[in-house]
Amino acid sequence: MQTIQVVLDKQLLEATDRAARRTKRNRSALVRDALREHLHRLELRSKENRDHEGYRNQPQRQRESELWETEAAWPAE
Questions:
Q1: I need a surface site. Which of 42, 48, 51, 61 has the fewest CB within 10 A?
Q2: pLDDT tens by residue, the chain, 77 residues
Q3: Is residue 47 part of a domain?
């Protein structure tokens, strides 16, 4: 691991310390976990935007999904 310096305003630092105490972690662990989660959400949002853009550029043809309806249906008993 590397040590870095991050500047936080007083209110954010106090909230960070409270959250660290509540979750029984130190400040660094809390910040690492929060950053990992944020980066994961950014990646997910990027993929969703890519998919959205793809469907916008090449919309589904009418009745295209009907080909797969039998695959998604429960088998008859």
A1: 61
A2: 999 999 999 999 999 999 999 999 999 999 999 999 999 999 999 999 999 999 888 887 877 777 777 777 787 77
A3: yes
Those residues whose C-beta lies under 8 Å from the C-beta of residue 33, and which sit 6 or more positions away, are 25
**Residue count of the chain:** 77
* Beta-carbon-side half-sphere exposure of residue 4 (alpha carbons within 13 Å): 9
* 40: in domain: yes
The secondary structure of residue 15, as a DSSP letter, is: H
Write the DSSP symbol of residue 8. Answer: -
Q: Pull the structure tokens for residue 57.
A: 């550029």
- Tell me, yes or no, whether 15 lies in a domain: yes
Residue 42 near residue 48 (C-beta atoms within 8 A):
no
The reply to whether 68 falls in a domain is no
Count of the separate structural domains present in the chain: 1
pTM for the predicted model, two decimal places: 0.68
